[in-house]
Design a protein that fits this description.
352 residues, alpha+beta, Endonuclease III, domain 1, Nucleoside Triphosphate Pyrophosphohydrolase, 2 domains, three-stranded mixed beta sheet, 6 strands, DNA-binding, glycosidase
Length: 352
Amino acid sequence: MRDAELSNALLAWYDTHGRTLPWRVGPADRAAGIRADPYRVWLSEIMLQQTTVAAVREYFRLFTERWPSVEALAAAEDGDVMAAWAGLGYYARARNLLKCARVVASDLGGVFPDTVDGLRRLPGIGPYTAGAIAAIAFDRPATVVDGNVERVMARLHAIKSPLPAAKSELTECAAALTPQTRPGDHAQAVMDLGATICTPRRPACGICPWRDPCAARAAGIADTLPRKLPKAAKPIRLGIAYVARRADGAWLLQRRPDKGLLGGMLGWPGSDWGEAPTPAPPLDAGWRDAGAEARHTFTHFHLRLRVEVAEVPADTPPGEGMFVAKESFRPADLPTVMRKVYDIASSALLSD
DNA sequence: AATCCGTGGTG
DNA sequence: TCACCAAGGAT
């Protein structure tokens, strides 16, 4: 089957079976020539980096409700955006989201670039996201390669060499398939195929629009592709978190530095995280063990945090941190590991 | 080029 | 319980 036929078959499938998503334009509007809002496409694509649709849905709804335009987002307070992003992970995305919004609002008149090269220059926008926005929002014939596309291409052509080395070959396959007509729908169609039919485990080959031309299906190896190099084992790191509650109910928190793990997010003061962490209480107090440890797994290590708690007088100075008033403190504003620490600490403090 | 950076679901 | 995985980018 020629590339053009493959693309046509996929588009026909997409017109019937493509997913309805909050940041997408539906088939009826699409037929009427209505295009997606570049701001919403950009926002969704940033949120979807290494993140599932299910996890993104509610965040996308909250963000677009609170900040309906790139100008509104650009005018937001850093802390508000970081708090709104809390729980979604990869917090550099949120920092770059704000940077990008401010560049677009201030330097580009609130208008997103409509080319891959223009988009690629913006913070937080790499090869995938630039192609996705160019294709989806502006119908540019960009080649879009994400994890779904890699998997679909590896199976369609039965490419057995493992990722990440196979990336360039998979990109060439995807480029050859990209049509000049409806490239935005094509890009979304390949990703939908990967998300709903050509899934990592137990692909539904029987109902796939590409079941006949698929080389991996013919060879009976679809569910073994793409091959990937084994990943390094995750080491275990230890640490201590300190949760101080002032007599008036305020909590002692710190803003983490912009660089590195959980950069820019709120967190509890604590020790370093390693094999033998050095205790580092943020202030003198009657610290006591909360009786449970917070366990959390990051991308490249497991963490076990011992939790220590203290009740401190109303006139306690905040030291390196800041006391956040009871009324303005929301556990949901914290990254997940810090929220786990809060859950343990609060039950220990309240059970006295 | 290899490493760093989150999280929640899944089998 | 645990390894693997999901719409990557920055350095």
